Structures are given as C-alpha cells and as structure tokens.
From TrEMBL:
Lineage top rank: taxon: Bacteria
Alphabetized UniProt keyword annotations: Heme, Iron, Membrane, Metal-binding, Transmembrane, Transmembrane helix
Residues passing through the membrane, by range: 27-50, 70-88, 109-133
Protein species of origin: Sediminihabitans luteus
Tagged with keyword Thylakoid: no
Name this polypeptide is given: Succinate dehydrogenase / fumarate reductase membrane anchor subunit
Length: 151
C-alpha cells in the first residue's frame, strides 16, 4: 500500500466484528407482535362470542355470570392468557413508539419506567383477581350469586 493511502479494509473488519455480536431482540419483538396478534384475535373473538352471543347475550353479564365463568379453570386460563398476551403485546408496541419518538435518553428512560410499572401493576392485579376471585362471598344477596354457590 502506498504511503498516505487509507486502509479501507480495517473499517470493514471492525464493522463485521461489531455486527456479529449484536442480538436479534428487535427481530424477536417483531415476530412476537405478529404471533401474539393472531392468538389475541382468537382469544378476543372467543371471549366476545361467549359473552355476547351465547345465552341471553349482554343482558346476562353480571356478577353471577362472571362468578360462574371463573369457577372453571378453562375460563381462568383463557382470561389469563388474554390478559397477559394483551399486556405484553401492548407494552411492546408502546415501547417501540417510545424508542422511535422520545429524543432524549432521560425522557425515554422515564417513559419506559412508567410503562413497565403500569404493566406490572395491571398484570399482577389482574392475575390476582382471576385466581383469588370468590364467586360465593359470605353475606352476599343470594339472588346475585351464581348457581354453583348453592350446590
């Protein structure tokens, strides 16, 4: 190589080394969004069909309906999957928007912390409600209780 001529191979080698150590986090997030979107469509439309079309429809939804539904482990798992997938899906989408539009690192950090805190509160509270819900509370009006409470 002649004196004063820049070595063009050195930057390419450095780029190749850097590129090979990168993770595919954003790719996995993109794939997750597509897969979870399809699963959420099935879960949400199944939920809407059972709650609005079967039986008396929307007029049947009350404490007894939810209490009777959540006595079944099938519906507990169904609603839990819907909650968790919707929250992870939505949080990942908002995280992407924050990354795209928040210009300062401090702003990005504060917004993501608020997002993750909201995610944690909703998921923990929702999970606790689904699994600790008592369809037969002591002292409740018997006309409001589901039929499973009288057996």
């Amino acid at each position: 190589m002649a004196a004063g001529t820049p070595d063009l191979a050195a930057p390419r080698e450095a780029y190749r080394r850097k590129k090979s150590t990168r993770t595919n986090y954003e790719l996995y997030g993109w794939v997750f969004m597509r897969a979870s979107g399809v699963v959420l469509l099935v879960l949400i439309f199944g939920h809407l069909f059972v709650n609005l079309m079967v039986g008396d429809g929307v007029h049947a939804i009350d404490f007894a309906f939810v209490g009777g539904k959540w006595t079944s482990p099938f519906w507990q798992v169904w609603d839990l999957l819907m909650l968790w997938l919707a929250m992870i899906h939505g949080t990942n989408g908002v995280r992407t928007i924050i990354n795209d539009y928040a210009e300062r690192d401090t702003t990005r950090l504060v917004l993501k912390l608020a997002l993750y805190l909201a995610f944690t509160i909703v998921v923990v509270a929702g999970t606790l409600v689904i699994f600790t819900f008592s369809p037969c509370p002591v002292g409740a009006d018997p006309s409001l209780l589901p039929s499973v409470c009288f057996s």
